[in-house]
Design a protein that fits this description.
about 80 residues; DUF1450
């Protein structure tokens, strides 16, 4: 079972698209995009992704990518 990373399409448009593309290329991570994840306040203020249901936030796409990988490493599924 791979870690699941979920993105809001609005947040992708706000800058997290680069992170989405990097993670999508990783065969060990399942990446999904949704029309809305119902975190509108967070979505308008920062870049974020839900990693196994937990929010990971950052100011830049590069930082978000790093934080997602760090979260996955520190919080294994098993």
């Amino acid at each position: 079972m791979n870690p699941l990373v979920e993105f809001c399409v609005s947040n992708l448009a706000n800058g997290s698209q680069d992170t989405f593309e990097v993670l999508e290329m990783d065969p060990n991570i399942d990446v999904l995009e949704y029309g809305c994840l119902s975190y509108c306040t967070k979505c308008s203020n920062s870049l974020y992704a839900l990693v196994n249901g937990e929010m990971v936030e950052a100011e830049t796409p590069e930082e978000l990518t790093k934080k997602v990988y760090q979260f996955i490493e520190e919080n294994p599924l098993f």
